[in-house]
Design a protein that fits this description.
Blueprint (H helix, E strand, L loop, with lengths): L1 H16 L9 E14 L2 H8 L1 H10 L3 E12 L3 E12 L7 E12 L2 H4 L10 E15 L3 E18 L2 E18 L11 E3 L6 E14 L2
Antiparallel strand pairs: 1-2, 1-9, 2-3, 3-4, 4-5, 5-6, 6-7, 7-8, 7-9
Helix pairs in contact: 2-3
């Protein structure tokens, strides 16, 4: 049985390993990314709007945790991609009062290597790189919470070892422009449960790690 599975895997792999993708023809991309996530906040800015105790509770809760991202997009002639990126992270997940955060952004990405092989129909190697900018929504919390607008920047380097599959590394920064601080998110419409933060959270969330990309196209 094991020999049969190995033989089938090698057979299928050989069918798509012969040539790198034809990046210049575009195609759909779907990526799964994993790595640690790191928080950074401007405590002085946040405390000036919500008070020292609330700021300390919020910042202390947001700790480094496992982070997973899903990204789906469409590449246009190898030069640019448009799509959606979703990132989720969590901590204290075994506790009843678990915490976490999620971000969803629409993004545009530039793939500069297409300019290097602009006059070639097929690249000599299955290497691709991109940098992206995104805008969307984010939410974070445990004992206290915040949500609102986020801006995002990221970079990827991927090697397509098969026409339809690639692996690589990534780095991504999400910059919080959050304008609401929640004392009690479940009752956020009640007086005193939500504090406006017009100057934002002054924070960022960074994640980096490995990525697997699946490609549909020539």
């Amino acid at each position: 049985m094991i020999r049969w599975v190995l033989a089938l895997t090698l057979s299928l792999g050989g069918a798509v390993l012969a040539d790198p993708p034809k990046f210049s023809q575009g195609g759909f991309l779907f990526s799964v990314m994993y790595g640690p996530g790191f928080w950074k906040f401007d405590r002085t800015l946040l405390a000036s709007q919500v008070g020292d105790a609330n700021a300390d509770l919020f910042i202390t809760d947001a700790v480094t945790g496992h982070t997973v991202s899903l990204r789906a997009g469409y590449n246009i002639f190898g030069h640019a991609s448009l799509g959606v990126d979703f990132t989720a992270t969590g901590w204290d997940i075994t506790n009843a009062n678990r915490g976490g955060a999620g971000f969803i952004t629409g993004y545009v990405a530039w793939h500069p290597l297409e300019l290097v092989w602009l006059k070639k129909q097929t690249r000599p190697i299955g290497l691709d790189a991109s940098t992206l900018f995104g805008v969307g929504y984010g939410i974070c919390g445990e004992q206290r919470g915040m949500d609102g607008l986020v801006l995002q920047w990221g970079a990827n380097v991927d090697y397509f070892f098969a026409r339809y599959f690639g692996a690589g590394v990534f780095v991504k920064g999400t910059f919080m422009q959050w304008d609401k601080f929640y004392i009690d998110y479940n009752n956020r419409d009640l007086p005193g449960a939500t504090i406006p933060t017009p100057r934002g959270a002054g924070g960022s969330f960074w994640t980096m790690g490995i990525a697997l990309t699946f490609r549909a196209g020539e």
